[in-house]
Structures are given as C-alpha cells and as structure tokens.
Amino acid sequence: MSERPLTIVSLNIRGLGKDSAKQKLIKTWLSSLQNPPQVLLIQEHHLDKQGVTNSTKGLEFWQGKAFWNLGIPMGTSQRTSAETAILVDRMTAPLIKKDGILVEGRAQYVTLHLPDISELSIVNTYAPRTSRERTPLWKKISEANLSAEHIILGGDFNHLEEEGTRGQAGERRIYRREAATWHHLTLQYGLLDAWTLDNFKKMSKKEYTFDNGRKGQGSVVSHIDKFLVSQELDSRGGRIEAAPSIRKISNHSPLVMTVWGRTLAPPKTTTYFDITLLKEDESRSALLEAWEGTHPPPSQDANWPGWLEATIERVLKCNGKLAKERKREKGARTRGL
Prior knowledge:
About 30% of the residues lie in helices and about 25% in strands. With about 325 residues, the protein is of the alpha+beta class. The chain folds into 2 domains: about 5-260, 4-Layer Sandwich (Deoxyribonuclease I, Chain A), CATH 3.60.10.10; about 275-335.
C-alpha cells in the first residue's frame, strides 16, 4: 500500500453495449464520490472485442488504463456472457507491473508495485450462478498461484456463505464440492471478507448489494458482491459501503472499499489550540489547572512521554471546551442586540 488510501469500487453493470447514457451515469456517479476510486472492477459488460473498441469512449475519463476480459460467445449470436474489466486511474496506471486473465470471461487480475508493499494483486471475478459451475472457477484461481505479497479478491461472487439473503436463495447456496474449493482458495491466499471485519468500518446501514426489484414473495435481496482481503490488509483497516442502488445502471449496488495506506489510519480531526484564551484570566487559570492535573509531575523513573501525552490531551480538551463556551456566549450576545 502507498501512503495514500486505496479506494476500489466493484459494480455489476448488467450490460454496457452502445448505451452511452449508462456510461455517462457511471461517470457521473464515480465523479460524485467524496473519495473517487483509483480502481474500478466491473462485471457483465457484455462487450466483445469490437464492442470494447467502439463503445467504451464514455468510460475513458480517468486517462488511465482499461484491462478487458471479453465475454464468452453465446452460440452463433453476437451476444456474449460472463465478462469482467478492470479500470485504473492515471495515477495508478504506472504502478501496474503485471496483468492477466485467469479464467476467460470470469476472472482477471492486475498486480501493482506500491512503495511499501512489493506486490498487491487485485482480482476481479464474475462467478456463475450455480454451485456446480462455480466449483471449477475457484479451483482455477487457486491454481493460478498468485505470488503477490497481498491480494484483494473482489466482484460478483453469486453465492452466499452465510444467511445473507431474503427470499429464495436457490442456486446461490454453496454445496459440498464448491465449499471445498472455495475454502481452499481463501486459506491458500489468507483471504477474509472485509464486510465482516471489525477493522473495516461500515459506512452505511445497508446490508445487501443485490435487489431484484420485485415485491412480495418474488422479492430477493442478497449480499453476493464482496471484497476479500489478505490478513495484513485487514490489520491496516479501512472502510466499506454498499452504496445506494442506481437502478438505471443495475440491480446491483456499487460496493466501495477503502484500505488505509501505511501511515493513514482512519483520519482524525485536527485539534487546534486557541492561543487567545491565554489572554483572559479565567480561561488561563482553567488551562493551567488542566496542565497540572490531578497527578504530580513524574519522577525520573516515571513514564515521562506517557505523562506528557496525557497532559497535552487534557489541556487541548479543556481548550476546546472553553473555546466552545466563548463562542456560545458571543452568539447569545449577538442575538440579544
């Protein structure tokens, strides 16, 4: 990871084709994010080689690179099924040292060399709908033996490890053979579901990433879009969010994950010391009292750094309280005029 956070978005776009309006919606939504992603994983773009060449100008707004895993032809028709793509912004593109397709239409990866990690591989997957078809996919990703020091596996997994659905789970259940290959994959790469990790703060109350839009008994909502991270990335922590659905794009919600950089723990609010409070007798006395505290200065054998840190924190807290009180009093006087 670099010094800055890494933000990744995964979205099943349910077809792109020549739909320039959908491309514009995706662009607008990504641009509206407070922290625009460096990496975008998309599934089900429904584009063949010609479609990628002719129909994706609307996505070329990052000035970065796009890596396409083209679809599997469906018989004699021009339609394809099972497609993925990885798009990166212009700042991240030079850091990519390797890329490749693990399974045609189903899984691909890029490997980045970042300042404080030798390698980070990001894998994008679009899994089949049935447990029988998913089994060989997990096996092939395992057999790829990705050598990166750290791995993020994201995308549309189309399965449910736990009770994460409302309605008919049906073919999204994991059966015995798939369970064996899936657990082997996660153990091999040491992967953990970021959605379940305490170190990744959930930024919304929304629990589902898929909603078929039906009402009553036909309604199905589930959490089939995921990010799995290696254990060291878990220790860094971050945040994750199932963003509000954009129905004109897809019945999947965008899944947004940020992993903190090496020196970037969750950002803290900067506390400033209001020096003007030292000019007033009452506030100066209060600050002096906070500095002296209830504990005597430490002896030579005491933990001086720890005592000093606690004392400074106490003074800053007192300073902030006094500043708020003065601001409140000033506001009351203004309203009384």
